[in-house]
Amino acid sequence: MACMQSTVFFFVTIFMVCVSSTAAGNETAPPAECADFNTTTWREYQQGTKLQVQYLLLTRENMDCATIFNKESLSDPQEPSLFNSSLPTKVIIHGYRATGSKPSWVKALAEGLLHAANVNVLVVDWIYGASFAYTRVVQNYKEVAVQISILVNKLVSHGSSLESFHFIGVSLGAHVSGFVGTLFGGKVGRITGLDPAGPMFKGADIYDRLDPTDALFVEAIHTDSDYFGISIPVGHVDFFLNGGMDQTGCKRSRFASVLVYFPVYGYLICDHMRAVYVYISALNSSCPLIGFPCPSYERFLAGQCTDCERIFEGTCPRIGLLEKGGIAVSPLPHQEKLFLQTSSSVPFCAHHFLLELEVSPLKKSAQVEVTLRSMGQPDIQQRLNLQREENKYWRVMSADEPLCKIESIHLKNTGSYFYRQGDIHFQSVCISEFPNTGQKEALCVRNIQLGWSRPWSHDFVQLCDMD
User: Fold this and answer.
1) Binding residue per annotation — 454?
2) Coil, strand or helix at 385
3) Gap between the Cα atoms of 194 and 228, Å rounded
4) Does the N-terminal peptide bond of residue 331 adopt cis geometry, omega within 30 degrees of 0?
5) Catalytic residue IDs
6) Is 399 helix (H, G, I), strand (E, B) or coil?
7) Phi and psi torsions of 64, nearest 5°
8) What phi-psi label fits residue 195: left (phi over 0), alpha (psi between -120 and 50 degrees) or beta?
């Protein structure tokens, strides 16, 4: 296992060098008066660069030009700080930086937060301690958390409340956030972990990683739990997008020869960072990204978890800045897994459909392909294996467009050519959108006789409400 992780980190570093070099060539330097991230080099790392942490402050008054912030800033008469202790404070903490470069997503995340709410945004820059050797970076993360806690203590003494702090940690930054919360006895307001790091943390004690006791509300978004993200729930609620692993629209890699030996290579940027971009989109978009509680993704896909009645009394948790994710129940759940599917691009929202089939008794097993079509959109397909002993089937499908824009449904008997399947009689085929608000009726077609070589289709005549 240790050998595999070492190999992975080696190739991660090589890949990040390529990405960082390309990005650096196109980067425009910020104005001299604006603060920016530190960067470090391999040479500095070899010389034993000290752990240095600096803070960048952004508010609605200086959204385009960050200022350096520290514990002396509030009492400096020469340069009054823009920090407002009466406002909530969002603290952004990046994770591992393979090549010592600054994260490219920070500006978009800070702007999203400031557009969504009038807050202080503090960006933690710990590039010096977060770069190159991953094992050494993991050794640094608690010291970074200690330094952050010193600043938070100073801000509390100037009028901020612990409950007003919301830590947003990316990858390893999620565990930094968790340890800050531990230092304050879980009294900070909120922690959002964006694909919390998995290597060296999955089997760690809760004292050493993010967990629900670290804040009054802890949430996590998982998008790469099979490689660089953690696979276990670490919050009050944990959103597993598309099962928490392979994300829609993420290609494996154009480096096919490398993938033969290292399939993780192409997932590094896309899957692991999808949590960040989904969260930014949730801040900027009006379409909801809601999760459905379910013991597993397989059961979710099988249509067994299509509402939030049992655990959340009907209101599904939502990604974004709603208080406690929109959860109204008390006490809060503990490590509740939530599943949802997303689209492949911004705003990432997908409409969830429940396909329900009722089939007359079969003489032998069969296979059927169901296709939903709408103008200008890709086909949505689902294949189901039908068994003699079952006559009802449920499957979850998703699309960029709502149910009211589905124009037709197509059925095809895809049984074996050599062992030709006989006709299949469907008593009903229904499609409904969930969560069910009680306002949308299912689309149903009944009494369908489907021959092996004669595909069947039905056009829907419907319009979307203009509300």
Assistant:
1) no
2) strand
3) 12
4) yes
5) 171, 195, 272
6) strand
7) -100, 5
8) left
